[in-house]
Amino acid sequence: xxxxxxxxxxxxxxxxxxxxxxxxxxxxxxxxxxxxxxxxxxxxxxxxxxxxxxxxxxxxxxxxxxxxxxxxxxxxxxxxxxxxxxxxxxxxxxxxxxxxxxxxxxxxxxxxxxxxxxxxxxxxxxxxxxxxxxxxxxxxxxxxxxxxxxxxxxxxxxxxxxxxxxxxxxxxxxxxxxxxxxxxx
Length: 185
Description:
This protein has helices at 9-20, 38-45, 59-66, 84-89, 113-121, 157-182; strands spanning 29-30, 49-50, 73-75, 94-98, 126-133, 143-150.
């Protein structure tokens, strides 16, 4: 897991799914960007190795060093483009979760509350989440899975975010399992 900076609920959902055998994998490392987030603390509490990798000079190679032994990379709260070294070394094996139904409301700067505000402002009747493979362009990789929910007339960004987050906790582990099982060997 790379980039968790919030509560870490998506990271925790993946860890629980792996431990339950729903996802045929083991979370080897959580790589936060050193902001002392709840996700970092939660990973430690769950017994997952945490290795902080700060952005800056040599970030790509340092990130690759932290990923030694990993087969897949799951982004959670990662708000920058992933270095090409990672994408080149994990072709079609880097996943990300987006709090909207891509291709709508994606791209640079579209994350979290901003997505929910845009969905409500546009009068959308449906929202949800998308798990996609990561490419060098924000939110444009192939979609692995989407789950949707209605946008209610009295929704606020917070109430919509709450429903979408519940879908994320289901979709991310399910999509990861699908990518692992469907991957050509």
